[in-house]
Design a protein that fits this description.
The chain is an alpha/beta fold. It has eight helices and ten strands. Strands 1, 2, 3, 6, 7 and 8 form a six-stranded parallel β-sheet that branches. The radius of gyration is 16 Å and the shape is globular. The two termini are 22 Å apart.
Length: 206
């Protein structure tokens, strides 16, 4: 089927980071991790482990502030501060950002793009941050995913490591493939033109 499904994870604690890396490695899947600058300061070894495992480490703001309340210059400064921290640890400067709280407006998007970044949203929220059971997370994701979906998970969520193998196995059996987000929206093998709708979600152009 060749549908593309992307996993977003947004780490807070780091207690299960290696477990998530190991699960993804078992299925030979590379994911995109959006990390906050403060998290990079606290857990540089985890950031390096993600990068060394071949996952994308991208920007989730420097302090997880509400971008909708910041000026253009403040947003650009925040984005660059987080990029600097990630690049120092991984050697790779991020190209994508998931703004905190999924907040978008014209000023946010314009500022992000002025910083040379692309904003990312999602269309399937696992709600793992609500401490749903593994079965509930699995059902929610596997019934909502469609071709081109971006799925949001969180590091340090209580039941994500338990749910993830079943989710991956189910979707792989259904013919889905998993790729990092940059392989979808940036130049490359899977690149397609896209636009951002009023909710901030990526949609194929045309």
């Amino acid at each position: 089927m060749g549908a593309n499904d992307r996993i977003i994870t947004s780490p807070w604690g780091n207690e299960d980071t290696q477990q998530l890396i190991d699960i993804l490695a078992k299925y030979n899947i590379k994911a995109t991790f959006f990390v906050v600058g403060d998290w990079v300061d606290k857990y540089p070894e985890s950031v390096k482990a993600l990068s060394d495992a071949g996952h994308e480490v991208m920007n989730h703001s420097n302090h997880h502030d509400h971008f909708s309340k910041l000026s253009r210059d403040q947003i650009i400064a925040d984005v660059n501060a987080c990029n600097d921290k990630i690049e120092t640890v991984t050697g790779v400067r991020p190209t994508l950002i998931r703004p905190p709280y999924g907040e978008y407006d014209d000023n946010v998007i314009t500022a992000i793009r002025a910083a040379g970044m692309e904003p990312i949203q999602w269309d399937v929220d696992s709600l793992d941050w609500k401490d749903l059971s593994a079965a509930e997370i699995t059902k929610r994701v596997t019934t909502k995913v469609q071709a081109g979906s971006i799925v949001l998970f969180h590091n340090a969520a209580k039941h994500t490591p338990e749910a993830l193998p079943t989710i991956l196995e189910t979707l792989l059996q259904e013919g889905y493939t998993f790729v990092p987000i940059s392989e979808i929206i940036l130049p490359g093998e899977y690149n397609v033109d896209y636009t951002i709708d009023h909710t901030g979600r990526q949609c194929p152009a045309g």
